[in-house]
Design goal:
The complex is a heterodimer of chains A (373) and B (315). Chain A is mainly alpha-helical and 373 residues long. In chain A, 69% of the residues lie in helices and 6% in strands. Chain A folds into two domains: 3-43 and 173-366, no CATH class; 49-169, abc type-2 transporter like domain (abc type-2 transporter like fold, 3-Layer(aba) Sandwich). A four-stranded mixed sheet of chain A has the order 2-1-3-4. The longest helix of chain A is centred in the middle third of the chain and has 36 residues, at 171-206. Chain B is of the alpha/beta class. Chain B has two domains: 5-227, P-loop containing nucleotide triphosphate hydrolases (Rossmann fold), CATH 3.40.50.300; 231-297, 2-Layer Sandwich (Alpha-Beta Plaits). The longest helix of chain B has 16 residues, at 173-188. Chain B is elongated, with a radius of gyration of 23 Å. Chain A binds chain B through residues 5, 8-9, 12, 15-16, 19-20, 206-208, 210-211, 213-217, 370-373, and chain B through 19, 53, 56-60, 77-78, 81-82, 84, 86, 88, 90-97, 101, 105-106, 108-111, 137.
Chain lengths: 373, 315
């Protein structure tokens, strides 16, 4: 390996990148925009759900319960129908997404220390609104109960209850916190593999690869010279998106930093090597791009990025072990949210290290220095 | 007397290369002495590019071998590449790099020292009249300038053997002339040049030529030698209806071959075959009017037409 050759190839690659502002934007600016946009989409707060309250009890307690819904910020009480049968048309028309039904005798039951059932009706046509809407409601009621108990002087409400409720309170915050770290890896995969897939096949199409074969450049030097600039750009991209994720979305980080950095780096190496491999075995740039698109879908679906791996059929769960993105997401979610470190994530790190070595080796072997076609 | 292997610039033996079902190069023997301009002539698809790519070590032969200055393209390509300059048929410099950056890159990769790089690129750009475009990106050069840039790039490491694959195809006539002037200068500088071309008129500028057709090289020699392979006399027949005239002369006895050449018919008469007057008489007899029949010099076009036909008949 002649490092003068490698340095020269890297110099050439950067010279070309500088002449291609669109490609640079694709690698450095677009990922940040994507992170911001997708971060809002996947982690959006479900707030201000239009709500109907049917208060059949008409007591202080029932009014306070309705008030606690209104003041939470998640429910806007827009309708107050007199009877339960008026709810149906409101839900049918989509005027309200949630309805709270407080039956007659609620206050007296509560005062008597009996269980007082209240009805919560949720529009299930949008599963996300439904789950969030019902989830908030049950938590609100739990808080309401706790307050009542505290007010009545039956002091079983210890100091910890309020805080625990607060964390549980905000599932939307939880979504951002788990989606942004996954997005760091997903965006890296999207951009780096598709750009890298064009790198060698482009030179093959333009004939400059053939010219390279009448120079003293070896195939190892050529591959290192091709990979290095993109690895450097990948590091910059990772740093940018991680910084934006931390500052813009305020995503907390609880784990070991070096584990997250190492995990992301190994994943980036795998991604770049995968793109390089595709570029080496493809005959045209278009073909390479199609292969990348073909590979992306199973990556997204089977990585646990959108659908939890645990809820997949057993056969597909086995397949997910072959998806590098799965390990990257586990490492990032683990370090960001669960405060995990090397001890917990050692297998994921080793898996990614294995993937990167295998992909790089594949790339090297698939690269015939002397063209056979 | 045949020169020994070590004295030859190119010594190809039974070189073969197949692409799928197509035998692109089919057992080619080729000997090229150092110095001089060796023209590789043949129509599109004759196998010229495939042969040159094998000689340039970018394509591995299926069988046979070729020695470049005594080194095998199959076993010793690392010793060969520093001594050759290969210019592919397609423009293959980096389009987004400038003229000088392309020269710099390919010279540095071949280990040309900085001082020499500067001196050579300056003098090459000067002699090829590219100096004022040295900062222009390659994609914004004209066709002729692109070809000159490629040639300049292959000359930066001062190779002994130049393998030029159709350097003048798709280039305007003026640039073609200029390109051949540069090739003449290189020959004066004692380089060996193998140049592939589909243009028969360019063959006259070569010291030696080889005809290539359907993967074979049936004949090599100086232009005069190759032309002397054509027996008999060549006539050009002018007629209002050249196609009818072509059909008519083909039926005459003693005519080896006949072709349309522009708007005249070229007729090759075998030794002892019909002369101009007899041809005219024959055509009148079959009711075809010819305005003129003139003897013509055998040129490369005629020689190639004849030799390709012979090769086809032999196969």
């Amino acid at each position: 390996m002649n490092w003068k050759h490698v340095r020269l190839l890297i110099w050439k690659e950067f010279l070309q990148l500088r002449r291609d502002p669109i490609l640079l934007a694709l690698l450095l600016i677009l990922p940040v925009l994507q992170l911001v946009m997708l971060g809002y989409v996947v982690g959006a707060d479900v707030k201000h759900l239009s709500t109907a309250v049917v208060d059949l009890d008409r007591t202080v307690t029932s009014r306070r319960l309705a008030e606690s819904f209104a003041s939470s910020g998640y429910y806007d009480i827009t309708q107050r129908p007199a009877k339960e049968s008026d709810l149906r048309p409101l839900l049918d028309r989509g005027d309200v997404k949630v309805a709270l039904v407080i039956p007659e005798g609620t206050e007296s039951r509560v005062s008597a220390g009996e269980a007082a059932p209240v009805g919560i009706v949720v529009d299930g046509s949008d599963s996300r609104t439904a789950s969030v809407g019902s989830g908030y409601a049950s938590q609100l009621i739990a808080v309401f109960n706790a307050k009542r108990i505290a007010e009545q002087g039956i002091s079983i409400a210890g100091p910890g209850i309020d805080a625990r409720v607060r964390v549980e309170y905000n599932p939307s915050l939880r979504a951002v916190n788990s989606m942004v770290p996954s997005l760091l890896a997903t965006i890296l995969l999207l951009t780096m593999s598709s750009v890298m897939s064009q790198a060698v096949v482009g030179e093959r199409e333009r004939g400059t690869l053939e010219l390279m074969f009448v120079t003293p450049i070896s195939r190892g030097e050529y591959l290192v010279g091709k990979l290095t600039p993109y690895i450097l750009i990948g590091v910059v991209q990772m740093s940018l998106t991680a910084l934006v994720g931390r500052t813009w979305f305020g995503v907390p980080f609880h784990g070991q930093l070096w584990v997250a950095v190492l995990g992301l780096f190994l994943f980036m190496l795998t991604t770049v090597a995968l793109g390089l491999f595709i570029s080496l075995v493809s005959h045209t740039r278009q073909q390479a791009q199609q292969v990348v698109i073909f590979i992306m879908l199973p990556f997204f679906v089977l990585s646990g990025f959108i659908f939890p791996v645990a809820s997949m059929p057993t056969v597909l769960q086995v397949v997910t072990y072959a998806i590098p993105l799965r390990y990257a997401i586990e490492i990032l979610r683990g370090t960001f949210i669960q405060g995990a470190g090397a001890r917990e994530l050692i297998w994921q790190l080793l898996a990614l290290a294995g993937f990167s070595v295998v992909m790089l080796t594949l790339a090297l072997f698939s690269f015939h220095k002397r063209l056979s076609d | 007397m045949a020169p020994s292997t070590a004295e030859l610039a190119i010594d190809a033996r039974r070189l073969c290369r197949r692409f799928g079902d197509v035998q692109a190069v089919d057992g080619v023997d080729l000997r090229v002495r150092p110095g001089g301009v060796f023209g590789l002539l043949g129509p599109d698809g004759a196998g010229k590019s495939t042969l040159i790519r094998m000689l340039a070590t970018v394509l591995t032969p299926n069988s046979g071998d070729a020695l470049i200055f005594g080194d095998s393209v199959v076993h010793a390509h690392r010793r060969i590449t520093p001594r050759i300059g290969y210019m592919s048929q397609r423009f293959s410099m980096y389009l987004d790099l400038s003229v000088s950056e392309n020269l710099e890159f390919f010279a540095r990769i071949r280990g040309v020292p900085a001082a020499l790089r500067r001196a050579r690129s300056a003098s090459l750009l000067e002699s090829m009249e590219l100096a004022e475009f040295s900062d222009r990106q390659a994609q914004f050069l004209s066709g002729g300038m692109k070809q000159k840039l490629m040639l300049a790039s292959t000359l930066m490491h001062e190779p002994d053997l130049l393998l030029l694959d159709e350097p003048t195809t798709g280039v305007d006539p003026l640039s073609r002339l200029e390109f051949w002037r540069i090739i003449a200068d290189l020959r004066a500088a004692e380089k060996t040049i193998l140049v592939a071309t589909p243009y028969m008129d360019e063959a006259e500028r070569c010291t030696d030529i080889a005809f290539m057709d359907a993967g074979h090289i049936p004949h090599t020699g100086t232009p005069a030698e190759v032309k002397s392979l054509v027996p008999g006399t060549l006539f050009e027949v002018a007629a209002p209806d050249p196609r009818a005239a072509l059909a008519a002369v083909c039926s005459a006895s003693g005519v080896t071959s006949a072709h349309l050449y522009g708007d005249v018919v070229r007729v090759l008469s075998a030794p002892g075959g019909p002369d101009a007057r007899e041809l005219l008489t024959h055509m009148n007899a079959v009711g075809i009017h010819a305005t003129d029949v003139q003897p013509a010099d055998v040129d490369m076009e005629a020689a190639f037409a004849y030799l390709a036909e012979q090769a086809g008949d032999a196969a």
